[in-house]
Every structure is written in C-alpha cells, then in structure tokens.
Request: fold
Amino acid sequence: MDETARQAARQWTLAQPAVSAFVTSMVRDFRDRDDVLQDIAVAVIESYASYDPAHPFVAWAIGVARNQVGIYLRSRRRDRLVFDDDTAACLAVAIDEVAKEKSLQLDFLQDCLGGLEGRAQRLFELRYQRDMKPAAIADRVGMTANSVAKALQRVRDQLRECVQRKSLEAGVQ
Reply:
C-alpha cells in the first residue's frame, strides 16, 4: 500500500462516523444504508487524488457522500420517504457542523484529561485506559468499590464541566 492510499484510509477512518450519520439521516433502509456507505467508501478512496488538503476532509467526504446518496435516491424516486436535493444539502451542512463541534469537544476533552492529577488521574487511567472494573480498581488502590465508583463519577463530572467551559469559551455548543 503506497503512502497516498494510507493517507486516504486514515482520513476516511476519521470521517466515517460523520459520513455514516449523514447517510443514516438520508437512507432509511439499513441494508441499503450499508450498501450506500460502502459505495461512498470506494468513491472516497478512488477520488482521493482530487481532494484538496487545504479544505477539511470531512466536508469533502460528505460531498462525495451527497453524490452517492443522490444516486441512491434517484434510483428510489418512487419511494415517498426520500428527501429532495435541498433537504439532502441542508443535512450535509448540518452534519458537517456537528462533526466539527464534536471534534473540538474531543480536543477539549484531551486538554481536560491533561489537567487531571493524583488519584483522579490514576483512577481514570485504570478505568478507561486499562478497562478495569471498579472492584478491581478498589483492590489495586486500597479503596472500596463503592468509593471508586463515586470518585469516578466525580472525575466524569469534572471532565464534563471542563469540556462545557472550554466549549462556551470557544463559542461551541
């Protein structure tokens, strides 16, 4: 696999949740949805050479998805439960915006995680990076399982408040 194909695959992996959300909003039948999403993946990889890295990849991939969904919808024109082109365009824009906001929130979460210290950082690492249950964490750190669960709830609350604060500061909803 050459470097261009690797880069295309990386970009697609990051964009796929947003593209999938767009497709889900447009294609009601789950079997058709999977087929359309596969067609989009192929189209994205095949047309990756035309992607301009100066622009966001997710928006470009949603543009490719709009074309593929349009092909699907035209083939289903008799079905009364499909959206027109204007609605599809509006959904594409909305999903791209949501994807940008979620991406920013993940960046904020990373910043907030960096602010965890001491026991909070240790508990978070054991629970979410090592996937340990509260009872196993309790044995490791000398606490009860109930106190570990409560401490983890406080850590999650702290992280949620931090992300919300950073979102408000940045003007992200």
Observations:
- Residues 47 and 99 are 22 Å apart (CA to CA).
- Residues 115-173 form a domain with the Arc Repressor Mutant, subunit A fold (CATH 1.10.10).
- The radius of gyration is 21 Å.
- The chain has two domains: 1-100, 115-173.
